[in-house]
Structures are given as C-alpha cells and as structure tokens.
Amino acid sequence: MEVFYGTQNVISEELLFFSKGRQRIDTCMDSTRPSFAIGIESIKRSFVDARNRGVKLRYLTEITDANISYCKELMSIVGEVRHLDGIKGNFMISEIEYLAPATSHQETKLAALIIYSSVREIVEHQQYVFETLWNKSMSAETRIRELEEGITHYQTKVIEDPDEVVKEISSLIANSNELCTCLTSGGMQYGYNHFSEIRKKILEKQKKGEHKGLRYVSNINQDNSKFVKVFLDAGTRVRHLKNLPPMSFAVSDKEIVATIEKMEGGRMVQSLLVSNEPAYIDHFRSIFEDLWVKGIDGEDRIKEIDEGTDLTDIEIIQNPRKVIERAWSYVEKSEYEILSIFATPNAFRRQMNMGLLQLLNEATEQRHVKVRILIPGDKQIKDTIDQAAKVCPLVDFRVAEENLQTRITIVVIDRKDCIIVELRDDTKDSSYYAAGLATYSNSKSIISSYASIFESLWKQNELYEQLKIHDKMQKEFINVAAHELRTPIQPILGLTDILRSKQRDGAEEAEYLDVILRNAKRLHGLTEDILDVSRIESKLLELNKESFNLNDLILSAITDFNNEVPKIHKDTNLKLEFIDSKDSIFIKADRGRINQVISNLLSNAIKFTKVGSITIAAVPNDNEITVSITDTGPGIDSQILPRLFTKFATKSTTGTGLGLYISKNIIEGHGGKIWGKNNYPEGKGATFGFSLPLHEQI
Questions:
Q1: DSSP string for 679-691
Q2: What is the full DSSP assignment across 406-425?
Q3: Model confidence over 103-162: pLDDT tens digits?
Q4: What is the pTM of this model?
Q5: Is it true that domain 2-149 has CATH number 3.30.870.10?
Q6: I want to staple 317 with a disulfide (CB 3.0 to 4.6 A). Which of 75, 438, 569, 631 is the partner?
C-alpha cells in the first residue's frame, strides 16, 4: 500500500490507474466528483480511452440538482452510471488495483492525497463493498427523471417522538399489502398494547383477499405467551426463534421501520428508523425470510410452554471466533463438571496456546469443578499432558487410542450445555482457522447421549490401560517362563542322547530313552516358538541375512523329514518330492529362519497327510522366488481357513497353532508374502507357499 501527496500526483496516479485497467474499472464518488471527471480534460479522456479499449466502466455517485449536467455527460462516456443517496467515500477498483482519493465530504477542491494498493485481499474487499453499494443503487436515468419531473424521492429518517413512532407504525400497517415483523419478546406486548385495532382491520382485509397477511417472528416465552396466544387466535401467523437480531423491525411492501430498543414490558419506543428505500426494503425482507425459515411454529412453542416441556435450543454457529468465545464462556461459568473429547492432539494444543489451561485451573481450584479431558494420542502427547498437568494439576487427563481421532471436539458443561465443534484444518496453528461450524444445544437427550459417549470412552480407556498392563505382565511372564524352561531342557536332551548311544538296540531302556528324547524335543520346540512369538510382539525379531543356495536348504529339510515320517505315520507310503529347478537358486536371507518356515510348512503337511505325496517346488521368476508345498491330505478346515497365520489357529491335538503365525512374520520380515489354500475343486489337499522379492536374490 502507498500514499501519494499533491494534486498533480493524485491526477497522475488516476491516469496511470486507468491506463492499466484491462477488464473493468468501477468508480464510486461523492456528489462533487462528477464535475472533476468531466471538467478535467485528462481525466475525462482517460474514461474515453478505457472505454475504447473495451474496458467495462461503472460509475456510482449521488446525483443531485447541482451535478445533474455532469452526470448526463458521464452517461454518454461511461457504460453505466447509477445513483445512491449519501455516498461519502471515494474509490476506484480495477481487477488488480485499488485507488482512493482522500477528501472531506462535499469538499469542492481536487484531492491532494491518494491511497494506492495492489494487495489482492484489499482489492477483493473493496470490490465487495462496491458491489454491495451498486446493488442498492438505482439507474441514473430513473434518478434524473425523478429530479426533472419532481417525483417524490425515497428517504430514510429517524423519528424520536414516542407518539409519532406509534403513528408511523400504524401508518405502515394500514398502508401495507403484506407485513412481516421481527420483535423482541417485549415487542409482542408493545404491539398488543398499541396496534390491536389496526391489526384486526388488516386481518379482515386478509379474509377478503385484499391483504397477504401478517407474520411475526419473536422469542416466545412465559412472559409474552399470553399475547402470542391472542395474535394466534386472531389469525396472525407467529413463529418462535431464540436468537433474534439485535434490532426489531417491520417491513411491508412499501417501507420499513426499525428500532434497537428492547421494549421490555411493552415500554414505548423512543426512537424509530423509517425508510422507503427499495434497497432497505429488500434487505430487511431477506433477513425476515431467513428468520422465518429457521423459526418454530408458535402454536407448538405455546404447547411446550403450557405442558412444562420447554423446547430446547439447537444453534448452528458459523464464526469460529464466536464458537471459541461461547465455549470458553461456558467453561468460565461451569459449576461442577466439564467433560471434553478433543478431535486431535493438535486441537488440544491450540487451545493450550490460547490460555485454556488457565481457565481450567481456575475452575478446579476456585470453584472445585471436576474436569475430565480425553485426548487422542500421538508421539508427543505424553510431553503435552505433562506440560498441561503442571498448569492445572487437578484436571484429569487421559490419552485415548490414536485411532479415536475424529473431526469433532465435544464439550459438555454441567450436563446442561453442549458444544460440538467441527475440525476444518488440523494443520493450522490458530483455532480460529482450524475450526469450522459448531453446534450448540441444551437438549437433555443430546447432552445425555454425548455424556454417555464420553463415559464409555473414558471407561474404555481405563480398561484398555489395565489390559495393557496385564498384557505386558503376561508377555514378561511368558518370556521368563520360556527362558526358564529352556535351561533344563538342554541338559535333558544332551544327556538323553548320551545314554541312548550307550544302549543296545532293542533294549527296553532304549525305548524309554526314545520317548524321553521325543518329548524333550517337543518341549524344546514349544519354548522356542513361545520365545519367537514374544520377540515378534515386542518387535525384536532379528534377521541375520547371508547368501545361500535355497535348493540345498530344501533338500536338507526333506532328508530330515524323510527320517521322521515313519515315526509320525507307521506303515505309510507317503512320499516327499522336490521339483528341482535344476539351476541353483541363491538368495540373501536368514538361513535359519527360512529353514524354520520350510520346516513348519513341511511338518504341517506331513501331520495331516497319511497317504499320497507332498510336493515341494521352488520357482524363480523376474520379480520373486516362490516356494510351494502341496499335499494330498484332507485340506484346510473351513473354520480354520479365515484365521490362518494367526496365533493358536489349529484343530490339531498335538500342535499350538504358533508355527504358521511365526512363519508369516518371518516371511513378511523379509519383505515377502505367505499364503495357504485348498486345492479343490482342481485336486485334493492343500497348498502352502511363500515368496521372497527379487531384491533379496544374489
């Protein structure tokens, strides 16, 4: 923004402004300025040049007897000229610039100071101002005809005599063809006291079809309900609205009257604004229609009051600043309880920065209000809560699960008032820009519902914290137990092998040692599985990658299991076959863990396949290496299939269901995938397989 001084600089800036306009130039000037636009040749020429370039020109001014000749000439130059009473400010706007000559009202000299700006927000704001004034104006032709033909001019005036006020309102009602009135609660009694007779006449005209009727909007309460009943019984339509504008008004098809006085107890109006300006009439009619749509039928409102079940209030608040002010005002007036669920951690931090904690501290320490706040978690939430607790130590903060984050913040005060605030943009630093629409309600059912939601989440959080502690203790116990079991198992295995090697084949002691050895190995496998599950859930499962030949690993596993098959299934002809890809397949992975996966899959296949075959295949391609194990057993149980690869998913009496869960985490830790499916209808049995991505190859 810049300021230029001196008459010559003012003219130069105006000429430059006109020369840069390409699409439109809108001008708003007081009644003295048209003479300069026509009288100063360079300015007049700038209008003509702009018009010749195709620039759209609009000129708004107050046309009077004194400047009518200049305005007529302006009309021949400018695309459109309009009139509006009482213009005081002077400014011009193009699509990119704003210019405002600074003069006193009705000053007859050319301005010696001019303000310039190309800031987009300023230009857009002034364009909005111009459009507002333009829409209220009348055409220059109409105004000039009024002046030349002596037609009565529209006027706006203020009446400050109470008796004259009554006369003016009576005249408005009597001369109307339609009347819409917005009144404070006291205004209903004022209307009853002073305009009952004239209102009856209008209602008679309405019955004859000579009048469109009377409509009232007011705040209907115990104090004015008896007057509203009289209005309703007479045939007047009335609606209830709690939040009324700060001004009472009546608008007919010809004029408007308005006052800012409250009229408590029917008190006389001392000051009244009166206008027959079409712009004012349209403006107030628009306001009334909006209020009428939002209103509640008067008969329903009266019924609620008579039955003692007063209607509750539900209000939409669009201005974020007013939303926050309203919420804070309820916090300041709280008596015994504040409940709040914040939409996100950032929503809480923004309120911290604005000073909410000081209000909460006053509520808890001075008024002994019980405050409970639930905040979704994130990485910094612990530090945030610690900082908040230092300021208001009596507030009970709880951290909810991160997935609780919603788009609304809920505040319930004393179980009487509730505000729900929409989150518009969580990245903003200020609540004024982050908040969106809000809803206020004092409905008992709504408040009860949100309070119940809060209590459920609060209790759920408490139970969740207890479960986390229990789960941690359980994991610690399992981990300790598995390690403790591992300690005695190792010497049992070692010593049993030594004793077994010293016994003769067929000896009875050797058979007993085989039983001990087999069960010790089974117990050893179980402890290792438990430890692996503990590592997985603690995210401590480590992979020690190395390069090795996958085919060799598979052949070695098959050899080991060929020796075990007769021990699992006696008198069986079960065959284990490896479909060799002929070429060696070298991969970089954790050899022991991949062997563990293959062994788990083979063990499952052998356990459930008594006859037939188990086929293992390793197939490399451009993107990955796939290993599959296909058996001819009964297939995967339909109840287990949806839960494959989860903990304890088994129907076997000899397994824990941990093997597939561990295998899944090992393969996914390598960046691969694992699956299981039934072969039917194409064939018998099931196929389990896994794949490792190409980048793991050497």
A1: -TTTSSSEEEEEE
A2: -SEEEEEETTTEEEEEEES-
A3: 654 456 777 889 999 999 999 999 999 999 999 888 999 889 888 887 656 678 888 888
A4: 0.38
A5: yes
A6: 438
